[in-house]
Design a protein that fits this description.
The chain contains 12 helices and 23 strands. The chain is of the alpha/beta class and 436 residues long. The chain binds ligand EPZ.
């Protein structure tokens, strides 16, 4: 299979403005939610990324009609959906395919979905998703009922339930919300995830007539409704993680960049850390400017990832790159995923001085990155390596770059508009790309 790499000649200070696209982790849940509607709807600010293209193809494979009005706008009509089964190869391409479990269970009272693909940062179970469905009356959600990797769910009827998640889970929260929208009676999700994308999916569901309260807090209450109406237009929120990645790219190149079309409060965990390190981070109404005052020293710090409003795990690799360039010893504690430091050996090829102990990384700062050929081990790791390559004097190659394009829209043109020297070059890759 012909893959490609990003060739980056670093050392330029990024400057200017870059606009953030729609949120990947919101739109994937929203596309699944759209499959529950009884009518056409229009979705705006959809990011032009490969995960969305896969999810759209998956929805089309169910029979939904999805028309691309333009690169960021979809007209969706799911009334032609003719099956509650999704088990083809598309399902294992992206993890978010599991949202169809909640959506199809809500729509049909049945769902037969292949278990999602694995990833490379440790175990990614879906036991909490299945527990929620089981509590709502679904059969087939017990581990011993899963045959040949297909989760066969049926509920007659699907009823409301009190669901306590002992681990905060974005996916399980969204999946439970989807099913609960059409369940008979009331559902309460306790210890729910509170990420911006959870709120966006809830707002989208409420736009179609769902009755969801408390999204963005620990407890979400849902009253099931028999019908979800279409005939509305919805715009996806800006991508918090894309925005944070450009904030880091600006900082590591010693640049001065204004990131626009974002929600500053969503960025506060990263903004606060960057200010603590010595960067200037100025919040606008829907923008953030990042730069370093002349003569300002940049000091290292400690970071602990946690569910929102904690520090986002999806900005962890990018922030380790920031720590590499700061004065002193920094620590990164990865508290969400079992192991999310697979990118460290790639950064070490570029001169990073990092020691990993299970979920902790000790980062010795004041590294001057040197150019190298490195592998994007997953989406956000790839983004971190792009940041390191932008800071490294000389030419680097980041292979398996299709993994970066899963979640970053038009990254080459966006970085070029800020003064980066980056281009896509062919690179033979025998391994089929799998979702990270
Ligand atoms: C979502 O994954 C995001 N993906 C991830 O972003 C993100 O890292 C993660 O949330 C945490 O914020 C999408 O939204 C498509 P979780 P998800 O369920 O929902 C454990 C990116 O780069 N867990 O919140 O799969 C799990 O193992 C991607 O955009 C269970 O034990 O994450 C993890 O330790 C990478 N049982 C923790 O919970 C379950 O049933 C959080 O996982 C579910 C999860």
């Amino acid at each position: 299979m012909n893959n490609y790499a990003y060739k980056i000649t670093g050392g330029n200070r990024l400057s200017g403005e870059v606009e953030i696209s729609g949120s990947k982790n919101a739109v994937l849940g929203i596309l699944a939610a759209a499959m529950m509607v009884d009518g056409p709807l229009t979705l705006e600010n959809v990011p032009d990324i490969s995960d969305v293209r896969v999810m759209v193809e998956l929805c089309r494979s169910l029979g939904a009609e999805i028309e691309e009005i333009d690169v960021h706008t979809l007209k969706i009509d799911p009334r032609t959906i003719c099956t509650y089964k999704a088990s083809g190869s598309l399902v294992s391409k992206i993890r978010a395919s599991y949202y169809l479990m909640g959506a199809l269970l809500g729509r049909f009272g049945k769902a037969a979905i292949r278990l999602p693909g694995g990833c490379n940062f440790g175990d990614r179970p879906i036991d909490l998703h299945l527990k929620a469905f089981q509590l709502m009356g679904a059969k087939g959600a017990r581990p011993n009922e899963i045959e040949a990797g297909i989760v066969n769910l049926s509920a007659n009827p699907l009823h409301g339930a009190k669901i306590y998640f002992d681990i905060v889970s974005v996916g399980a929260t969204i999946n439970a919300m989807l099913a609960a929208c059409k369940a008979d009676g009331r559902t309460e999700i306790i210890n729910a995830a509170k990420e911006p994308h959870i709120v966006d999916v809830a707002n989208f569901l409420n736009a179609m007539g769902a009755r969801i309260k408390g999204a963005g807090t620990d407890t979400i209450k849902i009253t099931g409704v028999p019908f979800l109406k279409g005939d509305f237009t919805y715009s996806v929120i800006p991508d918090q993680i894309e925005a944070g990645t450009y904030m880091v790219a600006a900082a590591v190149t010693g640049g001065d960049v204004t990131i626009t079309n974002l929600i500053p409060t969503h960025m506060e965990p990263l903004s606060a850390k960057m200010r603590e390190m010595g960067y200037t981070v100025e919040d606008g109404d829907d923008s953030i400017r990042v730069y370093k005052q002349e003569g300002e020293e940049i000091y290292s710090t400690n970071v602990k990832t946690a569910p929102y409003p904690g520090f986002p795990t999806d900005l962890q690799p990018q922030t380790v790159v920031l720590l590499c360039l700061a004065d002193g010893m920094g620590r990164m504690h990865e508290n969400v995923w079992q192991s999310r430091f697979q990118y460290v050996p790639e950064l070490q090829k570029m001169g990073a001085n990092i020691n990993v102990f299970e979920r902790h990384a000790l980062v010795n700062g004041i590294t001057r990155f040197k150019p190298a050929t490195v592998v994007a081990t997953d989406l956000r790791a790839g983004a971190a390596l792009v940041c390191a390559a932008l800071a490294a004097e000389g030419t680097s190659y980041i292979t398996h770059a299709s993994r970066i394009d899963r979640g970053y829209e038009h990254i080459v043109s966006k970085l070029r508009s800020l003064g980066a020297e980056i281009e896509r070059v062919d690179y033979e890759d025998p391994n089929e790309d799998t979702e990270a």
